[in-house]
Amino acid sequence: MAGAPTFPERKSSRGVLRVVVLASIFVLLAVTLVPTLRSYLRQQGEIDALRGHVAVQRQGVSDLQKEQARWNDDVYVMQQARERLKFVKVGEKSYTVIDGKASTKALPGLAKVPAASSNRPWYGQLWQSVQVADAGPAATAPPGTSGPTTGTSGSAGTTSSAK
Predict the structure, then answer these.
(1) If pLDDT is split at 50, 70 and 90, which confidence band does 124 have?
(2) 109 in the same domain as 74
(3) What is the pLDDT of residues 22-36, one digit of tens each?
(4) Is residue 64 domain-resident?
(5) 142 close to 107: Cβ distance less than 8 angstroms
(6) Are both 132 and 73 inside the same structural domain?
(7) Residues 6+ away with beta carbon under 8 Å from 135
(8) 73 in the same domain as 22
(9) Region Disordered: what ranges (predicted)?
(10) pTM of the entire structure?
(11) Inside any domain, residue 127
(12) What is the CA radius of gyration of the chain?
């Protein structure tokens, strides 16, 4: 019989069929498991990030609890009232020293403002302040040196700060 398949051909076709079925099962498993594995790994990353966030928040809570404990201490409250609000006890005298000398040290990023003169009208002083503000900190010199001044009077003044 020339048209009938022989025994070795049937055996090889069954082997190919088994390989194809086994490969299709592996493909089906891969298609099923890959998205699940991907979402599992993504969720594990989110869990790790949230654990780090919780640790930072716990540290913040412990810092706030320590600060609250400090504020529950009467000595600390009195110290802060003296430093921040300039409170004094009954019978004490408080002195505030205001330096009358002009500051020679220029603050970084601030333009020098000319001294106000009473012989100029208010709108002239306003326009001069706009010109100084427009020059901005880029036009000022580095700290410690005298920066350029804008104005027609030619006299530059500084303001003193109260401490």
Answers:
(1) confident
(2) no
(3) 999 999 999 999 999
(4) yes
(5) no
(6) no
(7) 111, 148, 150
(8) yes
(9) 136-163
(10) 0.40
(11) yes
(12) 41
In three-state secondary structure terms, 102 is coil
Residue 44 CB burial class (10 angstroms; 0-12, 13-18, ≥19): exposed
Number of structural domains, the chain? 2
User: Following CA atoms 41, 42, 48, 54 in sequence, which dihedral angle do they give, to the nearest 10 degrees?
Assistant: -150
| Residue 12 backbone zone (phi > 0: left; psi -120 to 50: alpha; other: beta) | alpha
Residue 92 lies in a domain: no
Q: Range of 67's domain?
A: 8-78
The answer to whether residue 159 sits within a structural domain is no
For the chain, the 3-state helix, strand and coil shares in percent, each to the nearest 5, are 60, 0, 40
Tokens 């949230």 sit on residue: 50
Indicate if 13 and 60 belong to the same structural domain: yes
Cα–Cα–Cα angle for 118, 124, 130, nearest 5°?
Answer: 120
Residue 76 identity (one-letter amino acid):
Y
Provide the β-strand partners of residue 156: 114
The burial class, CB within 10 Å (0-12 / 13-18 / 19+), for 59 is exposed
pLDDT 10s digits, 56-75: 999 999 999 999 999 999 99
